[in-house]
Every structure is written in structure tokens, then in C-alpha cells.
Amino acid sequence: MIIQFSQQDFAPRSFVAFNSPENTAEQNCDGGRLEIPENIAGGRVAADAVSPGLSLICSEMSFAKDTFFCEEYQDRDVLQIAFCLQGNCEWSYGNGARPHQLAPAECSLQCGVMRKCDSFFPRGPYRALSLSLGRERFADVIECLKDVRLLDSGDMIRTRVFAGTPHLRLLIRQLTECPPDYKLRKLFLEGKALELLSVFCSEVIGRKEKKGDVSREDRRCLRQARERIDEQFLLPLTISQIAKECHMSETKLKRGFKNCFGCTVYEYMVEKRMELAHSLLSSGKYKVKDVVWMAGYSNAGHFIKMFRKRYGLTPGEI
Q: Using CA atoms, how far apart are residues 147 and 133, in angstroms rounded to an integer?
């Protein structure tokens, strides 16, 4: 696996990755680049400086075993928003504080001076998209976040984890699907990244951090419920059915799902169906009338209404 940093200053002064005593890689970062052996991790982490003070970090990693990263930095100043797309990650800053966790449909805000970071990735794929922000360029954003006590004036590294929202997930999808050969790619990425930052702030400022009363076991069951929807959203799933399969009460499922993922179970199923419909229409291979039933709808009028609500366009305008 290759990890490419947008600036040499962002690179760790020491880096260790391991998934067993026999498979351990200790490296120094030369030229803002790390290479991890394939027997430990596959994939790529690439940072793209789309404009001064704004970088996009795209992580596409895969792990054959549970894997640990241990990083040390020379007072790295961090202001970053991360969005998990697939898999799970757990990390701590080596200061005795409780570890943080990030799962799909969740996002995190990190700010402060980072000197050490220990990360754990369970076996399987992990995908994430992050915005790295320069303090000078985004001083007004920092002040807004301080006003609502999401940041403080100290330099200790801190993390807040929030439920994602459908709007955020839509923008992330647009960013990750931008063709690499698109002539105006950098302009597109900068515009969408700024829009993503704006939506994050508007939908997080004034909202409480994700509630801590969801137990680890309940969160595991809720993620199982989300994965069930991801796999079978075209079927006529019911709250009762999902709750039973995930060993939760219907009330706990509905309340916990909204709390953890920023939308109701029904809204999430609609979101998945609309994503499929948009992908099918964008391919140019299918007519609207065919996509209606392919996306799990029997009523074309209702499908068009939900599609317009999601994308601001009718299916025929795609």
C-alpha cells in the first residue's frame, strides 16, 4: 500500500504497521511517501491539494488481517473532517484517553496538535474521504466551531464524531465519482469540497454531538441493520423484520438509527434506491420507465417525486 502526503510537513517522523509479530513494517517517510508491504495492507491513500489551504485525502485500503498503525509526529497541526465510506476504524492519540471509532455513515472533526496516533483496522476493506483545512484560510470556520464549543482554544488534539446526513453522503458520492481525466477536475473538486464543508458546518453547528447513550452492542446491531439495508434495499423490508433480525426492539432501532446515521430507516432505504436509480440513468442504458421498477418502485409518479427531492432534477433530465 502507498500513502502519499500532500506536504512533507504532514508526514509522520516514524511509522510502524503490523498485523502479527512476523509481519511488521517500520519506515521513515521520504519525500512525503510511505510504502507498506502488501502482506500487511493493500490499496492507496492519496492526498490532493486542490487549492491553497484545502486538500482532499482519499483512502482506499484493504487488510487481510486485523492491522495496527503507530504514527509519531513532530507537532503536526491538524484541522480535518473525515467521512467513513466503508469498513471501520478505531484510533487514539496515546494520551490515555478513550479511543475513537468511525464507521460508515459517520464523520469526525479533528483539531489540535497531533504528536502520536495509534490506529486499528479490522480485517477487510476500509474507505474514507477527508478534508484537510488550513487554519488561515478557514479562520472563520474555526471561530464558528468554537462558538458552539465543538473546538476549544487549546492545542491538545481533540475529536468529535457525528452522524452523517443524506446531503453529506450525496456530496461525498459526487466527489468520489469525479472522473480522473475530467479537464476541470481540480475546479470541480474544490467547489464540491467547499460545498461539503459548508453543509457539514450548517448541519453540525447547533446540533449536539452524537449521543453517547448508544451502547457498543447497540451500535453493532445498528450497523448490522444498515448493512442489511445496503444488501437488500430493493426488497419490501419492514421495521419489524429488520429489528427482529438485528435483535433489537423496533423503538430502539428507530431511535438509534436516526441518532447514529442522521436519517430514519425509511429515509435510508429511499436514499439507497435513489442512488441506484441515478447510477442506472447516468449510464444512458435505461429508460426512465425501466428504472422505476429496477429501483423498487411500482408508482412512477412517486418515484419521480422522490428523485426530484433527492437530486433537484427529474429522472428525464439526467
A: 18
